[in-house]
Amino acid sequence: MLKICTPGGGQGQGEQGASFLSADPRKKQVTVFDPSASGYVTSANRKAGTSAPKMFAFDSVFTPDDSLTELCASSLAEIVQAVVAGADGCLFTYGYSKLGKTYTMLGTDQGPSSLGVMPCAVAWLFRLINEQKDKTGARFSVRVSAVQVTGREEKLRDLLSDIGQGPPSGQGAGDGARTRDKRVPADLRTYSLATVR
């Protein structure tokens, strides 16, 4: 899945306003053009050394015009259903600063249509848990950790450290978050949101 966020809300605009990015949500495809080319690549400027457009396919493509509701509906259903079935789930956003990553993940508190990915995921998770509990009588335990990677040094910050008093990672029931190179904040906490019976 890809959500395109560009400075100023434009879609892939270069310094002179020439488009170097084209998103087609219907085809789930993004085309990247050589920014040094004037407009789209023609046979004349291809001979002059301009590279051909590169096309990339995704499971979903969202533009700045798409709402958080559309983004959540498309991206969360599979993940939340897998979590209720017992798998781990991971949501993340990546990109340059000031492009809307925090807004995409958290949204605002101005109503249900402005909720971001994380609040929607938690709400949907508990709705599915309650449905599953009513159908099967199953019991669930939910643990959540949230980590932000910041800066060029890629420092890890526990986003839940101010919320509760859960045990530091490795001291409670869960292992908490881990990165590929096993870095983890020493005081990363994993919180039990609820045990649903």
From TrEMBL:
<protein>
    <submittedName>
        <fullName>Kinesin-like protein kif26a</fullName>
    </submittedName>
</protein>
<keyword id="KW-0505">Motor protein</keyword>
<dbReference type="GO" id="GO:0007018">
    <property type="term" value="P:microtubule-based movement"/>
</dbReference>
<dbReference type="GO" id="GO:0003777">
    <property type="term" value="F:microtubule motor activity"/>
</dbReference>
<feature type="domain" description="Kinesin motor">
    <location>
        <begin position="1"/>
        <end position="197"/>
    </location>
</feature>
<dbReference type="InterPro" id="IPR027640">
    <property type="entry name" value="Kinesin-like_fam"/>
</dbReference>
<keyword id="KW-0963">Cytoplasm</keyword>
<keyword id="KW-0547">Nucleotide-binding</keyword>
<dbReference type="Pfam" id="PF00225">
    <property type="entry name" value="Kinesin"/>
</dbReference>
<dbReference type="InterPro" id="IPR027417">
    <property type="entry name" value="P-loop_NTPase"/>
</dbReference>
<feature type="binding site">
    <location>
        <begin position="95"/>
        <end position="102"/>
    </location>
    <ligand>
        <name>ATP</name>
    </ligand>
</feature>
<feature type="region of interest" description="Disordered">
    <location>
        <begin position="160"/>
        <end position="184"/>
    </location>
</feature>
<dbReference type="GO" id="GO:0005524">
    <property type="term" value="F:ATP binding"/>
</dbReference>
<dbReference type="GO" id="GO:0005856">
    <property type="term" value="C:cytoskeleton"/>
</dbReference>
<keyword id="KW-0067">ATP-binding</keyword>
<dbReference type="InterPro" id="IPR036961">
    <property type="entry name" value="Kinesin_motor_dom_sf"/>
</dbReference>
<keyword id="KW-0206">Cytoskeleton</keyword>
<dbReference type="GO" id="GO:0008017">
    <property type="term" value="F:microtubule binding"/>
</dbReference>
<dbReference type="InterPro" id="IPR001752">
    <property type="entry name" value="Kinesin_motor_dom"/>
</dbReference>
<comment type="similarity">
    <text>Belongs to the TRAFAC class myosin-kinesin ATPase superfamily. Kinesin family.</text>
</comment>
<feature type="region of interest" description="Disordered">
    <location>
        <begin position="1"/>
        <end position="20"/>
    </location>
</feature>
